[in-house]
Amino acid sequence: MLRYVIRKRGESRSFPSDAPENHPLLVNAADHPETHGPRDVLVVIGDQAGKAFAKIHDPTPWRAIVVELGTECLGVHTGESRGQEGSNVLGFARFRLGHARPTSLVELVKQPNTAPEAIAAAREVFESQGLTVAVCNDFPGRIVDRLIRPYLNAALRRLDERLASADDMDTTLRLGLGYPEGPIALLERTGLAEHHDVTHALYQALGDAAFAPARRAQVAKARAGRS
After folding, report:
1. Is residue 124 within 8 Å of residue 116, measured between CB atoms?
2. How many alpha carbons lie under 13 Å from residue 58 in its C-beta half-sphere?
3. CA distance 67 to 49
4. Closest Cα partner for 133 from 66, 53, 202?
């Protein structure tokens, strides 16, 4: 099995400290994160992962370095140059919606010239610990948020327009499209305020009105700020 080490800097959204038990990725990491060999993979997790990566002056001794991301691009941490950026450094985020538990999906972020062997090594690390990997290019929000957030915003706006009741909208999408859960119920379960934070960040980064937080998400965020 490929050897990897983990450096945790701050609270990780992908591997939260309040999880019922440690994920195998954490349990099976090498015991001494500050020591490594030339073929090891470094996984930097936590909300301060980008700052921790900035302190690594020479990433070349690692087979791959994988940095946990929020909604931001990997290029925020590595820099960008003429669309030719890329090295042995990748980004990742384990998808979770709002305050729900993280899923088994890891979105692995590459740049135009990311080394294929680094991608393969990072994929092997995550998949060896029971996670499913989807590789994507370096865009704000990656795959799932880019696809699902406009859909959730649209559902909230249709609710404001009184197209149908929340229950009828949820039922229609569950029965008509086979979704396991309707959009309004999903947002109520995982957090409207959290939806606001993600969509606001994507709207700021992309300037696409489809990502502008829907009114009900704005209300939830304002209310959360008063509590």
Report:
1. no
2. 3
3. 6
4. 66
Alpha helices in 108-214 (DSSP H): 116-128, 144-160, 166-177, 183-190, 192-206
| Residue 36 structural domain | 4-137
CATH number of the CATH domain containing 132: 3.40.50
CB atoms within 10 A of CB 174: 15
**Looking at the structure, do residues 127 and 180 belong to the same domain, yes or no?**
no
pLDDT in tens, 131-149: 999 999 999 999 999 999 9
- Model confidence pLDDT, tens digit, residues 46-70: 999 999 999 998 888 999 999 999 9
In order of 45, 80, 98, 156, 183, the CA distances from 167 in angstroms are: 39, 46, 21, 12, 10
Domains: count for the chain: 2
Q: Which helix (H) or strand (E) holds 135?
A: strand 132-137
